[in-house]
Amino acid sequence: MAAETEKRRYISSEELGKHSSPSDLWISIQGKVYNVTDWVNSHPGGEIPLLNLAGQDATDAYVAFHPASAWKHLDRFFVGYYLADYNVSDVSKDYRRLVAEFTKLGLYEEKGHGVLFLMSFMSLLYLVAVYLVIGTKNPWAHLAAGGMMGMLWIQSGWIGHDSSHYNVMISPRFNRLAQILSGNCLTGISIGWWKRTHNAHHIACNCLNYDPDLQHMPLFAVSSKLFNSITSYFYERTMTFDSISRFLISYQHLTFYPVMCFARINLFSQSIILLLSKKKKVPSRWQEIVGIIVFWTWYPYLVSFLPNWGERLTFVIASFVITGIQHVQFCLNHFSSSVYVGNPKGNDWFEKQTMGTLNITCSPWMDWFHGGLQFQAEHHLFPRLPRCHLRRIAPVVKELCKKHKLQYSSVSFWDANIMTLRTLRTAALQARDLDCPVPKNLVWEALNTHG
Q1: I need a surface site. Which of 84, 261, 267, 402 has the fewest CB within 10 A?
Q2: CB atoms < 10 A from the CB of 43, how many?
Q3: How far apart are CA 323 and CA 160, in angstroms?
Q4: HSE-up of 323 (CA within 13 Å, CB side)?
């Protein structure tokens, strides 16, 4: 053993940090150093997680996102070096112990029957909505059908979300089919776009310059730090804070819900932009494109059965407004939590995930409504864990946070809305009071006079 130890070659964290570019990308996992430069474009989770944690120890993130079966593939990337100053914090030790315990208990493999019930419910919603459009002439029935379509999209979104983290079906092939059907075909949103965006969000939870879920300039800003026109590393552009941004952000607490009612339009556009992009790699791009075409075939065709343009518009608006509830839910989990600027780190995983998330307290019978995201801290810490176990492990996570004096926030759905609006209003008032002047127009003056 001593002879083996002497033969080991070591590098420092500083030296590891020099290998942090796309053309020279090293990471460390449990003290061993790996060169994943040639693996970036083939990584099932996309290139963004590797690029964001390049040149760092990424053990906790790797443990969170990879099953035990993935460890055997690491050896082919080993460069022969070990990290000389590798150490594990007490928080990380406890976190990794929990992952191991949950694995031994089989929680990652036990998915329950939730998906079956959910898909049955979705099928019923779809069939009833189609019948109300085609088989009735009552305008109120048509309005109800639009609402059902929105509810269908919400539940479909939970399927798409879960299937991006773990196999909700019996095999990867059927899981992929569920993704394309529930995402692309049923809702018009590219599952490839969703996975790319969502993985970036998980790796850089509530990081203003890396987390796309907080990058909504010029419409919204959750922190005055965004007024410095920082760079989005996800969108590869500067989030410019100009006169238009200041005007819109100054009233963001008033426009939040109206914008959320039609936020799906942005998801449609982002999906199409990614799928048509020649620079971004999209796995199975043609599957994704065909799925989107299917949506834009059946949905307008269904709307065309309505008797007049007034009812058609009402149907579309109803479906958008109802599904806007889900967009609000996404925001509640993070908008009022702590944020930061800088590179995501691989050695404070547990701390960053808990400080950047907000749980929603609800009764078990309401779990279907929140899709598991009411246990946001648990989901971020154990993203591969089926949602049916999140309520079970919540007390364990809460106790671990208490042990290490870390933040664990959980409030009611009502209070979460109040906290989100308060955060938006605070940033809105800060946008109005900035010392740096920007050109104002008559509308600006009028609104501020009465505001």
Answers
A1: 402
A2: 15
A3: 14
A4: 26
Q: DSSP code of 138?
A: -
Q: How far is CA 300 from CA 179, 213, 295, 306, in A?
A: 22, 29, 8, 10
Rounded distance between C-alpha atoms, residue 209 and residue 372, angstroms: 27
pTM: 0.91
Give Cα 110 distance to the centre of its chain.
23
Angle at 83 between CA 339 and CA 98, to 5 degrees: 55
Helix axes 90-104, 390-403, angle to 10 degrees: 160
Residues 55/17, Cβ–Cβ less than 8 Å: yes
Percent of the chain at pLDDT above 90? Answer: 83
Write out the two tokens for 125.
Answer: 């919603």
Provide long-range contacts, Cβ within 8 A and 24+ apart, for 59-63: 59/28, 59/29, 59/30, 59/88, 59/92, 59/96, 59/346, 59/347, 60/92, 60/95, 60/96, 60/346, 60/347, 60/349, 60/350, 61/203, 61/346, 61/349, 62/29, 63/95, 63/96, 63/99
Q: Could you tell me where the DSSP H helices lie in 30-113?
A: 48-52, 59-65, 90-104
Average pLDDT in the chain: 91
Task: Give the chain's domains with CATH numbers.
Answer: 11-87 (3.10.120.10), 113-333 (no CATH)
State the amino acid at position 108 in one-letter form.
Y
Whether the per-residue pLDDT at 365 is higher than 70: the answer is yes
Which residue has 């944690």 as its token pair? 53
Could you tell me the CA-to-CA distances from 81 to 14, 24, 230, 332, 423 in Å, in that order? Answer: 14, 15, 36, 43, 46
pLDDT value of position 281: 87
Distance CA 245, CA 254 (A): 15
Residue 291 has φ and ψ, to the nearest 5°, of -60, -40
CA atoms within 13 A on the CB side of 264: 21
CB 400 within 8 A of CB 94: yes
At 340, list the tokens. Answer: 């930061």
391-405: pLDDT as tens digits? 999 999 999 999 999
Count Cβ atoms within 10 A of the Cβ of residue 109 and give its class: 0-12 exposed, 13-18 middle, 19 or more buried.
exposed
The answer to whether 347 touches 89, Cβ cutoff 8 Å, is: yes
